[in-house]
Design brief:
The protein has four helices and nine strands. The chain is of the alpha/beta class. α2 packs across α3.
C-alpha cells in the first residue's frame, strides 16, 4: 500500500471539537497494524543516518508516533507535556492558541548541546504548539532540530508558523 492510500484509513469526524471542523482521527490508522508499521518505517526512513539522539513527542498523540520513531532510530524519547505533569525541574514556553494561552514543558535536563532532535506531533494544523516546542528545545541549544508530522492540513498553512531554517516533514497532506 502506498502512503497516500493510508488516508482512506483515517476517520473524518465532522463537527469535532466544534461545529464546522472536520477532525482527522488518526486512531483508526494506528489501530491497523500494517498501516502503523508502514507509517513507522516511513517516518524512520526520513531520519536514518542523520545522527538523531532524541525524539520529543508532544502531548498526547505525539507520544505515540514519537515513541515509535525513537525506537526505530534507537534513540531516546522526551515527552513535551502540559504544565504540572512532569515530576522534576522543568523549563516551559507559553504560546497563544485560538481561544487563549497554553503552556508546554520539558524536563530541564532533557536536551543537551550534543543532541540532534526530532520534534514529533501527529498532525500539523496551525503550528502554534509545535512552534512553542521548537522554541523551547532551541533554547536548550541542541546541534540540530527537525520537525515531523504524520498528517498536515495544508489549508491551515501551519508551516508559515514554523521556523524557516528547520526541515519540516509530513507523511500525508490534506
Amino acid at each position: 500500500m502506498q502512503l497516500e492510500e493510508l488516508k482512506a484509513i483515517i476517520r473524518d469526524v465532522p463537527d469535532f471539537p466544534s461545529k464546522g471542523i472536520v477532525f482527522r482521527d488518526l486512531t483508526t490508522l494506528i489501530k491497523d497494524g500494517k498501516a502503523l508499521r508502514q507509517i513507522s518505517e516511513a517516518m524512520a526512513e526520513l531520519y536514518r543516518g542523520k545522527g538523531v539522539t532524541k525524539v520529543v513527542g508532544i502531548e498526547s498523540r505525539g507520544f505515540i508516533g514519537g515513541s515509535i520513531l525513537a525506537y526505530e532510530l534507537g534513540c531516546g524519547f522526551v515527552p513535551a507535556r502540559k504544565p504540572g505533569k512532569l515530576p522534576s525541574v522543568t523549563v516551559k514556553k507559553s504560546y497563544a492558541k485560538e481561544y487563549g494561552v497554553d503552556t508546554i514543558e520539558l524536563h530541564s535536563d532533557a536536551i543537551t548541546p550534543d543532541d540532534v532532535v526530532v520534534l514529533h506531533d501527529d498532525l500539523l494544523a496551525t503550528g502554534g504548539t509545535m512552534n512553542a516546542c521548537y522554541e523551547l528545545v532551541k533554547s536548550m541549544n541542541p546541534k540540530k532540530i527537525y520537525i515531523n508530522f504524520i498528517v498536515e492540513l495544508t489549508q491551515l498553512d501551519g508551516r508559515a508558523n514554523l521556523p524557516a531554517d528547520c526541515e519540516v516533514a509530513s507523511l500525508l497532506k490534506y
